[in-house]
Amino acid sequence: MSEVEYRQSRFSVPAGAADVLLIRHGESAPAHPDRPFPLVDGQGDPDLAPQGREHAERVAQRLAGAGLDAIYVTTLRRTVQTAAPLAARLGLTPQVEPDLREVHLGEWEGGLFRQKVAANDPVIHRMHAEQRWDVIPGAESAEALSTRVRGAIERLATAHPDQRIAVFTHGGVIGQVMALATGSRPLAFLGADNGSITRIVVTADRWIVRGFNDAAHLGADFAAEAAALS
């Protein structure tokens, strides 16, 4: 009689689950004090920087063979521009999910947030200490962000059972998804690299984290440090 063996099993996506790849948009154009970013529904809407367009090409190379069934973008053009090379390769038309747009930064929109980060503004320290965005005047509350992000992810999962999708979104949103999936502090996962890939598997009763901030396709020159929001 042969000896019974129990090998370690590899992860497999549960039946009916959605395999969701969250891609942070490529690096966007620099902010200038005298030239605020144009706004869409009150949120900064810069184009990609040249480095961001390279991020987009590298994402397309990485995911061209990933077996994607759909591509999603937000209302902000930096996600649309980042998704474009991959969409062209696969012949997929990106769909828009407005509720995965970046966290609203209130009076610090249009590029001012970056300037405040660079100046080491005390409000930034308070934001991290209190783990909430709305210490910034007029910014979105943690509760509002959590509600809309959770609702969007659940809608996408319901629409794509047994499928893999690519969602081009923003650093604040990716951080919120990870906080919801892990039960971490709200800003614990803030700082995903531009062009990085975060993967969650969404079932009817849980969100399974399979990877965060995968930047292997970007190379050390592109993933040296995370950029500020917007």
Features:
alpha/beta, single chain, 230 residues, six-stranded mixed beta sheet
Can you walk through the features of this model?
This protein is α/β, with parallel strands linked by helices. Helices cover 32% and strands 17% of the residues. It is built from six helices and eight strands; from the N terminus they run E-E-E-H-E-H-E-H-H-H-E-H-E-E. It has helices at residues 50-63, 77-90, 112-118, 122-130, 142-159, 171-182, and strands at residues 18-24, 39-40, 43-44, 70-73, 95-96, 163-169, 197-202, 207-214.
Radius of gyration: 18 Å
Low-confidence stretches: none
* DSSP strand tally: 8
Class by helix and strand content?
alpha/beta
Helix content: 25-40%
Instruction: Count helical runs.
Output: 6
Q: Estimate what percentage of residues fall within beta strands.
A: 15-25%
Major β-sheet strand ordering? 5-4-6-1-7-8
Average pLDDT, all residues: 95
Terminal CA distance reads 64 Å
The biggest beta sheet is recorded as: 6 strands, mixed
What's the SSE pattern?
A: EEEHEHEHHHEHEE
Shape: globular
